[in-house]
């Protein structure tokens, strides 16, 4: 009886999978969450760049501070990132990278990790973009 029990290996695969599956799934979810984090960062930078350019060129959709903020929110939503909770700061005549007379927009977006597996994930994603003011 004991020999037959030792020779029976039919459940070994299931036991090995049960031991390795949590680590494998955690790794996969961390990859997905890391990709979402980087996607959101890239969208913030893209939105910021477009908004400060719109502001500087004086387009009709960016005539005031609130219009610029609404433009940035709509651009973020077009990329799939809601900026409703974001703090969007619009400033003119700023110094960026040692160059004065720049228009600057900064966006700070609270970031919540969906699965909580990224312990190094920031609580706030921030982005700043500058564009030379046209005089």
What would you note in describing this structure?
- It is a single chain.
- By secondary structure, the chain is of the alpha+beta class.
- It has one domain.
- 49% of the residues lie in helices and 23% in strands.
- A hairpin with a 2-residue loop joins strand 1 and strand 2.
- The N and C termini lie far apart (93 Å).
Q: Characteristics of this structure?
A:
three-stranded antiparallel sheet, 135 residues, alpha+beta, rod-shaped, 23% strand
The whole-angstrom Rg is: 24 Å
Q: CA-to-CA gap between the ends?
A: 93 Å
Low-confidence stretches: none
Structural class: alpha+beta
| Elements, N to C (H/E) | HHHEEE
Largest sheet: 3 strands, antiparallel
Averaged pLDDT: 86
Overall geometry comes to: rod-shaped
Beta-strand share of residues: 15-25%
In spatial order, strands of the major sheet run 1-2-3
Summarize the structure.
InterPro entries: TadE-like_dom. With 135 residues, the chain is an alpha+beta fold.
Write the SSE topology.
Layout: H1 2-7, H2 12-57, H3 65-78, E1 87-96, E2 99-110, E3 124-132
Antiparallel strand pairs: 1-2, 2-3
Helix pairs in contact: 2-3
